[in-house]
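Can you give me the bound-state structure? Components:
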Amino acid sequence: MAGMTFDTRHFGEELDSLKRRMLEMGTLAEDKVRLAMRALVQRDQKLIAEIAAGDAAINQLHLEIDDRCFKLLALYQPMAVDLRVLVAIVKINGDLERIGDLAVNIAEASARYITHPPVKPLIDLPRMGDIALRMLKRALDAFVSGDVSEAQAVLAEDDTLDGLKSQIFRELLTYMLGDPQKIEPSIDLILISRHLERVGDHATNVAEDVIFIVEARDVRHQGDPTTRL
Amino acid sequence: MAGMTFDTRHFGEELDSLKRRMLEMGTLAEDKVRLAMRALVQRDQKLIAEIAAGDAAINQLHLEIDDRCFKLLALYQPMAVDLRVLVAIVKINGDLERIGDLAVNIAEASARYITHPPVKPLIDLPRMGDIALRMLKRALDAFVSGDVSEAQAVLAEDDTLDGLKSQIFRELLTYMLGDPQKIEPSIDLILISRHLERVGDHATNVAEDVIFIVEARDVRHQGDPTTRL
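Here's the bound-state model for the whole set.
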């Protein structure tokens, strides 16, 4: 564009690069939760220990993305939608880091769980994992596409996750009442269901941030920025 | 100051007012957790139901503070420490809202808990509550005073909270193994201990944001902003 200054072009490149890093972080967090659930189902002690050892790569990206957001805010003083994207990335960055932590929490509970005989075949818990991961993936896709209906679909799945969590709790309670040996491992499965619910919560936060970015753009197009500001 | 423009003065007033609102929100969140713990200990069904009904005031403040941060970023394009404070407030705002949610979660678990006879006198759980609330209060005090040592003291308390959580778990496990009637209510106490641990986590996040604000100011005073940027 003829009127584009060097600074604007540079800002655009920086912002695109930042978005890519944030999506890389999203993929790392997603992979970590997926691996944690696989390790639990397969009772893979080595993989569980690896995941429980922490998420240095995610923590590193978390710091980098925060720093880059701050730099871009300080150096370019972006306006309107660019500012919204940056503020949203600061928040999404926090959510993705927490998802990485939750994968660690799942692995910690799994490490305890596999020291006991299996309480039952795990079916609903992996299903919760699949739903939570699908929510996260769709939220990040919506961030890329700016598709509000995709983001809204994420919000709708929260109830499914909540329903499964309650169902898992009631079922495990029956096992615990029937056999005291199953109390301790069942509690770890209950905790894991809570961790997965929270992965879903963070995916919901990401989806809400996408709606915040896009709706503001729509409102601006209607010539009335104050309704959202 | 003679060289101060109207805009700068106006920005300063707006930022002060925003900080006050954030601290009000912090006090609301703190009160909510304190009330939730009191309602649990006193088995006060009415108070529990009130808290579980949600935190409309906190949610309203959450939206208002987010909007005001965004407006200030967009209208004044603040630099350096002012920018850091605003970015920190965006994050702290999210943490305080989650603390309000955790008070609701504590009340939800308490509502189930008091439908059973007491598992045991509650001593360590209220102690966890006191520590988590003290962490939050100190983190918010550190925000006001900019005292890094106060913020660092918050980080140190995280281990105490973790130790109490493990102790509570082991004790409740003994009760559950001895009497199946105690399984269901004990699980709610375990969940409440986890919620309190997370209140502490969010207080830790606030303390870290305070360190981020203050350390950057120190670094700037040393004339080397790039080490932190």
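A couple of observations. The domain at 6-227 of chain A is CATH 1.20.58.220 (Methane Monooxygenase Hydroxylase; Chain G, domain 1). Chain A has eight helices and no strands.
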